[in-house]
Amino acid sequence: MIKNGYEYDNIISLAKQYNFRKIMIMRNSWNNGNWCIVNKVIIKPDNKYGYAYGHIHYANGNKENGAIPCAGTYAWRVIKVLEEKMEVEYVKEKKKD
Description:
This protein is mainly beta. Helix content is 7%, strand content 48%. It has one helix spanning 11-17, and strands at 2-3, 6-7, 21-27, 35-43, 50-57, 63-67, 76-85, 87-90. A hairpin with a 5-residue loop joins strand 5 and strand 6 (63-67).
């Protein structure tokens, strides 16, 4: 989705788009000064959605490390692509009995 000249997508799609290199991202509802760096993604069996983890930095100076909320929403844009590779895990589909 393109909004205000920026392309927005979910974090898993953005991670794939940049070959699983660490990405600095911003959510569409955040104001300037808020950003996060994605260090790890866990991809669900559907290969579209999953979980993202990293470092969140808020404009007010607060910082968090851990799960990035709303990773599956199409509300994220890339600010910068870093050289380092992120950690990638795949959730295996549960076997049916």
